[in-house]
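In the current project phase, work has continued on tokenised descriptions of protein folds. One protein thus recorded appears below exactly as we store it.

——
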Amino acid sequence: MEIPGPAGKKSFDRAIEEAITLVKEAPRGSAFSVILGGPAPDAVTGAPLTHRADVIEVLEDLRPVGGPFRAHDALGVSLLNLEKGYHRAKEIVVFTDSQRLGWRLDSPSAWRSFGDAVKGLPSPPKLMVRSFPPPEALRNVAVSGIDLSREVVGTDREATIRVTIENTGTEAVTPEPLQVTVGEQVLEPAAIGQLAPGQEETIELRHLFKDSGPTVVKALLEAGDDLPLDDIRERVVTVKRRLPVLLVDGNPSGGFFERAAGFTALALAPSPELVEGNQASDNYLMEPTVLPAPEITTLKDLERHKVIVLADVARLPGTVADRVAAYVANGGGLLILAGPRVDEVFYNGWDGPGGPVSPVGLGALQADPEGIQPAPSTFDHETLVLFKDERKSDLGKASLSGFRAVTGRREGGSVAASYSNGEPFLAGRNYGKGRVLLATSGFDVRTGNLTTRQSFVPLVHELVTWLAGAGGVELNVDANWQPALALPGGGGLKGTYFRAMDESRGIAIERVDPTIQFDWKDQQPYKGMNRDRFQILWEGHLVPPVSGNYRFRMEVDDKATLKIDGRTVMRMVSTGQRDSGEVRLEAGTPVPISLSYQEEYSFASMKLFWQVPGGEMKIIPSQALLPLTGNREKEIVARSTAVDPRGEERKVSVSVGRRGRLLELEGAAIPGLYQVTIPDQLGEEVEELKGPKVPLVVRRDVRESRFQALEEDDKELIRKSIDLVEARNVTDLLAVLSGKGFGKELWKFLAIAAFFLLLLEVALARWISKSRRSAEDVKVEFEEKSGPDPEILERMKGVRKAE
């Protein structure tokens, strides 16, 4: 609401003034409830206020928030509040610029449901709309997007930064050159030229990121236009130092270049150390590790790798297949190179938490002595954009003498590229939180000359970086109520540490322990606790990664009891080690777990292990534990603060729940750059959050810079659900409150004086606002505590007589 209106006054300020006038001149005895809208309604006042000065103070303190206004949600909340009033007749008043965004007008069923709720009230309310007309002319150029050429960016090679500029106004604008900064480094300004209304331009800049970690890319366009807040845009790029990739070689015999994974490994990191069987040097982003297929059962650190490549691997042992499927479902990347050794029966029957792992059904190996080529005209995937132009890529000149037939697509799978004969070359799918790609040919010399093409190395990099892009923490989020980062892993058990064996002496601390592996020796576990004669209770849920029979082990000094799903699995009454019998668990199904520990005298220790089907006995990892007890949806495990774009401090919480682990900012999302203080433990666990402070960007929705007004058809849809009345000014609204009416004799529909004032702005950074920073939705409920005005009662009696 930054565009000046009459006398240079901004529309948002005018809306606040009219709301205050409405409150001041409303009938006596009214009570007011204030709700702030935007991405989600927020009750600013916990209860209706009867003192008008308090309501006015609330209105004066209101500030725009970020994100498109969700009008439909706000109206739904207003109905819930209307039910609390004392009087039958209630109304809703909306201050708006008639911006269409946020009203859910593409969903008639949602409005029908809203209409049913309206009819459920004792007396259906009206929706009274006070609109501020948009200006006839608007000068506005917006920075609408910042993208990079790759999802995973390292310090080893340049990346392309793409900045999109739009003219969303009604007049041609010639902005100053675009200024882009990367961290503290200022790049060469880029000239834009004149932009006509509706015109969009993309500026590309090549840049080598020098430092790993979260880096802020900021684009600034000085245009002297009407909406300056969309002239700037930020994006956080998480620059990687290393990207561990595991290549499982299905043809490990012979020389390095005869193996199924040899050329792929060298494409990732062309290092002589790799050929000699050692780790590649640290000059490359990619950190490939080649493992012979027969040794895969010995792998202990599967989750450390960002991507797994199965290079012509015939089949996987059942337990390993389950682990790999769970790994992908939790955010990992998987590349299947279906060479001549592949057992199609195994891949076609390979299922996991996300369903079939392979995006397509595989058939028998097909031979073509003359050779077939990948067809660039069929490339339909973001990993293949660089190779579509045959003038710049020789991928279409590769000749393959053997490939796997495809028997059909699986649910969720799609063909990304085909050969010159129409058979699929590359297929992919999203799998849970992860991604899968499958090539129907091996990447080695046995099936053709693909590895000799200049495009082979960038092809491998594009495939692997796309697969790796599914994991990690996304530090750019949409404007929403309580913006949240989805964090990997997260979990543990909630530990209640009692000061002594006697619980009546109180609790020393309640916290979440990621794993149960403690050796306190003869020291107290926490300050304020006894060194001897104390007890601890751990509670939560256990989430098995695969289905099957599990075994558990406790190493205890002195006593402990383990319960799973309410059943005692093990009880130890003296120091030592004990294994449980088999416990059947289903993949992804949380089961309650509790561990009660007691220390008598001398040394104290407690460790809890499990044996996954087909695996080794090891400490239960944190990602398999949720610290949730009873029916609680989430548990707060850490707190910190953040500084928002206005320089104000926000509260931050880290929680673990059924939605996983989240870092949430309290309050409404203001688009822009935040600096988040990271709790120590979280920084140690999550690569992207290392460091005392981490940047976070709440993205501005570019649709907020484009104006699309409510049309008559839209209003007709709303009228089917609620009586819609358009007011010209606040005088009209006050006329209704006083029972005088305007236009139609609206007063006769009102029993006075319980209604809502819904104060909102629907397009802050468009027409009403230079920034369209939010939608502000203020609803004020008037409740006539002392009874209706006598004059109005007389008028109502007259209406009854006339009827």
Remarks:
- Residues 6-134+707-794 form a domain with the Rossmann fold fold (CATH 3.40.50.410).
- The CA atoms of residues 168 and 706 lie 5 Å apart.
